[in-house]
Design brief:
alpha/beta, Serine Threonine Protein Phosphatase 5, Tetratricopeptide repeat, Nucleotide-diphossugar_trans, transferase
Length: 357
């Protein structure tokens, strides 16, 4: 039977680390917790669950901490989580089945990472990450911030989902790490350029973010999914700066790299709605509907753009054109995803009178 080490890095996670370990404790064979300086009861709670706890002096480098945790694992496979991640019972059972059936030729397994859910527990945003890896391959983490696990060989995709349940407020920690790298004259990889730009954006420093996003995009060395995301953020920056022409230019530039992504289509459509050009908007919302997510892609997926947003907006467009039957059709299509959403209910009430007349 395959054996699995669970590896965690943690600091002041007393509120969540027990919940995380409990969600998988019946399946894993070893718990490795690398503590990076907790001042609460994180260590004591981890030890209560039988974890082997190691102290690691924090050096502003997530990859270093994760690599250290991997170095302490002793089982055949390594499974990593963050302390605020959990597996719901359904996915816990899938993990057990994976463990029992995992072929020795498999080098790594990717899983869904659900970053947020709606009130009905449907995913709002998600991506895929490599979660289970063969220990003897000595796969390494790369990147001081927004680190990634570099794998190769026989990598399979699993339908197991890990739910992220963050309970801490976001801080400027990552921004400070990047600015420390700048101060030290560290050379930024394309990935680091992209994520540094994201930190600048999240802190409202839009002009600086624009400069870094453009440096990343124009360098032409980044992952295509990150390039598209950067162009979306560039559009956001220009939106905040109330420069509609440059916003549209950034959205259209994304089509140079790949087929239209639904979020881009919906944003272009909304620009036409603002101009009362509903037929043009309809074209782009239907393009969004026709685009399906690649489930094996590691890119971030905003599920609303693949599901209810284009439908609810088509309802608006057709209502403004006076075609209330078609408007109602698209409202009910949206209701298949968000049955109790206020917009669906309001539209239904409004359209009922229109259709009856």
């Amino acid at each position: 039977m395959n054996t699995i080490s669970l590896c965690l890095i943690a600091k002041n996670e007393e509120e969540v680390i027990g919940r995380c370990i409990e969600s998988v404790i019946d399946i894993i064979d070893e718990i490795i917790v690398v503590d990076t300086g907790s001042t609460d009861n994180t260590i004591e709670i981890a030890e209560k669950y039988g974890a082997k706890v190691y102290n690691f002096t924090w050096i502003d480098d997530f990859a270093a901490a994760r690599n250290y945790s991997f170095s302490k694992a002793s089982k055949e496979y390594i499974f990593w989580l963050d302390a605020d991640d959990i597996l719901i019972p359904e996915d816990k059972e899938k993990l057990k089945e994976l463990k029992d059936s995992l072929d020795s030729t498999v080098d790594a397994v990717s899983m869904n990472y659900v970053l947020a859910v709606d009130e009905n527990n449907n995913p709002v945003s998600s991506l895929r990450r490599n979660r289970v890896v063969k220990r003897k391959n000595n796969f390494s983490w790369i990147g001081k911030v927004h680190e990634y696990l570099e794998v190769y060989g026989n990598v399979i995709s699993s339908d197991i989902s890990i739910l992220h349940q963050k309970n801490k407020p976001y801080t400027d920690r990552n921004l400070r790490i990047y600015e420390g790298m700048l101060k030290n004259n560290d050379e930024f990889s394309p990935r680091e350029q992209f994520y540094y730009a994201n930190e600048l954006f999240d802190h409202g420093r839009y002009d600086e973010a624009l400069d870094m996003y453009r440096k990343f995009v124009d360098g032409k060395k980044g992952w295509v999914e990150d390039v598209k995301s950067a162009l979306s953020k560039i559009a956001d920056c220009y939106n905040y700066k109330e420069d509609k022409d440059m916003e549209m230019k950034a959205l259209l530039e994304a089509f140079e790299y790949d087929m239209p992504r639904p979020d881009f289509c919906c944003r272009i459509a909304y620009r036409f709605i603002e101009q009362n050009k509903y037929r043009e908007a309809i074209f782009w919302y239907k393009a969004a509907i026709d685009t399906k997510p690649d489930e094996d892609n590691m890119a971030l997926i905003n599920h609303a753009y693949y599901t209810w947003i284009p439908y609810i907006q088509l309802c608006v467009c057709y209502a403004n054109l006076g075609d209330f039957n078609t408007s109602n059709y698209y409202n009910e299509k949206a209701a298949e995803y968000i049955p109790d959403h206020p917009s669906v209910l309001q539209n239904r009430e409004y359209l009922k009178d229109k259709i009856n007349k």
